[in-house]
Amino acid sequence: MVFNFVLGVANLKASVEDLSCVIVEGVVGVVVVVVLAVVVVVVVVVVVLVVALVVQVLRVLTVVAVVVGVVGVVVVVEVAVVVVVVVV
Q1: How far apart are the first and last CA of the chain?
Q2: Tens digits of pLDDT across the chain (88 residues)
């Protein structure tokens, strides 16, 4: 009977150790999942911000190109008018 009690206590101790290992593994698993989720969110936010920045830069460059183009056309037309007036 004492042997059965000692065997039962040993089995209980082994069960508690197994349960603590399972709990620790579960906590580590949850922490890993949370960290990965945070990393994914940070990467997505950075990508969205970079894309938004590139879009804004392209918009500015487009406006600059249009302004330079218009100014260039105006300058060419003015030079042509001056040349025509001087020649005539």
Answers
A1: 129
A2: 656 666 666 676 766 666 667 777 878 888 899 999 999 999 999 999 999 999 999 888 898 888 888 888 888 888 888 777 777 6
CA distance 52 to 64: 18
Residue 65, classified by CB atoms within 10 Å of its CB into exposed (0-12), middle (13-18) or buried (19+), is exposed
Question: Distances in Å between the alpha carbon of 3 and those of 7, 8, 14, 21, 44?
Answer: 6, 8, 16, 27, 61
Model pTM? Answer: 0.53
- Distance of alpha carbon 42 from alpha carbon 39, whole angstroms: 5
Looking at residue 1, the DSSP 8-state letter turns out to be: -
